[in-house]
Amino acid sequence: MTDIFDLYRDPKKHDELKTILNLGAQKHPAGLAQNFLEKDIWVAEALRLLNNENLLGAHSTAFKGGTALSKCWRAIGVFPGIPWRQVFE
C-alpha cells in the first residue's frame, strides 16, 4: 500500500495524487472540493505527528473539534454545549 505522502515526495507522482484527490471529491456525497480533502490529509498528519512523535515533549495533548468529521464527512456527531475547557481543566 502506498503512503499518500510518497505521492507528495515524488514529483513524478503528482498527477496520480491529483487524480486520487479529484476522484475522492467526485465520490463525496456532498460534492466536497478536492482541496478540502487535501487539507484534511495535512491536518490529520499534523495531529498524528503531535500525538505520536512526542513533538510536545512531556506535555499531554487532547484534540477538540471535529468540524470536518461532522460537517463534511458526517462521520461523527458533535456535542454542542459541552464546556470542553472545563472538562480538561
CA-based gyration radius: 16 Å
The outline comes out as: flat
User: Helix and strand string, N-terminal first?
Assistant: HHHHH
Treating each run of at least 4 consecutive H or I residues as one helix, how many helices? 5
Main pleated-sheet profile: none
Describe this structure in words.
With 89 residues, the chain is mostly helical. 55% of the residues lie in helices and 0% in strands. The chain has helices spanning 4-9, 14-27, 34-52, 67-72, 84-87. Helix 2 crosses helix 3 (34-52). The termini are far apart. The mean pLDDT is 75.
What brief labels describe this structure?
89 residues, mainly alpha, 5 helices, flat
Q: Helices, strands, pairings?
A:
Layout: H1 4-9, H2 14-27, H3 34-52, H4 67-72, H5 84-87
In short:
The chain has 89 residues and is mainly alpha-helical.
